[in-house]
# Entry
Amino acid sequence: MTTTLITNIASLVTNDPAQGDGTPLGLLTNAAVVLEDEHIAWVGPAAKAPAADETYDAEGRAAIPGFVDSHSHLVFAGDRTQEFNARMSGRAYSAGGIRTTVAATRAATDEDLEANLTRYLAEALHQGTTTFETKSGYGLTTEDEARALRIAARHTDEVTFLGAHIVSPDYAEDPAAYVDLVTGPMLDACAPHARWIDVFCEKGAFDGDQARAILTAGKAKGLHPRIHANQLSYGPGVQLAVELDAASADHCTHLTDADVDALAQGNTVATLLPGAEFSTRAQWPDARRLLDAGATVALSTDCNPGSSFTSSVPFCIALAVRDMGMTPDEAIWSATAGGAAALRRTDIGVLREGTRADLALLDAPSHVHLAYRPGVPLVSGVWRRGVRQV
Ligand code: NIG
Ligand code: FE
# Structure
């Protein structure tokens, strides 16, 4: 058993309301943390810290729990630079672009896909992400979806089967047959490799009835639902998510009052993905409206080559604060504890005795600098499962 003391932390976000200032961030000043193997063994004032095998002096930096990026699409090949360029000249985003990445992904070797994934994970880790969820959805055949999940599962426990990203181009004339495939043989092949099942519920992808059939079939195979809901237009996705007790409804850009009420009443987290609105020049999701109604909000990157090609949670925090009505405290909670809630996890996103020793040090005296100094690489140290990575 090895213990590491990180001391001289000017400001520590614990997300444990029992700590510190009594806010949800559980902010401690002049703090220290002791890591014991993979877990947190102690959190408190630096002056009272116990001795440890190793000591690291944070020299007055701020520290936060590692980011929990609860929504990404990292198993893919190629990119969509031309599509982005066209969009920035005025073309609208549509789900159809997914087909470009499907073709590139099908043509890629396992080694290429894994090398890509590893590269984006390294980017994310250097920006403070210590847990990430990722999805299939660029294969859309039984073999290609299962292979994406197998590759993802080598890197994370939070693997999501998204065979229902769009109707496979091979089934363009017969979408019902594609839903049969996704809920039948494809699900059978994919379920052993995944924890979650997702569906893109949107015009041009899957309607409410199809989404319900897909998620219900997934539940019967032991997968837990989450939904791409209400991204490009109003629709049934959010209400369906709450009805099926999905862990998360993701995007939530176009919400009626009834959608907001449903999220506030239910157990489904609203995961906001501002990288997508940034990169598609779309209207921002209204985080303030959701928070004021009492919904739980998570913030994630949606990292994918089409709608949001960023692996940076700090970038998303800055957008959420500037354009979505969140305070810096709320945005940082949503990107850590909120992401954990969207994955129904209590062992991450919080720094208290017994949780996972996942944390990031910032080259700044306060977590607020993540929003205050947008675009600046402030993450200067990352511990994951108690091991220093950055
Ligand atoms: O979350 N909305 C659906 N899926 C992705 C975009 C995928 C793509 O454009 O390649 C998203 O934004
Ligand atoms: Fe997505």
Notes: DSSP finds 14 helices and 17 strands in the chain. The first helix runs from residue 81 to 88.
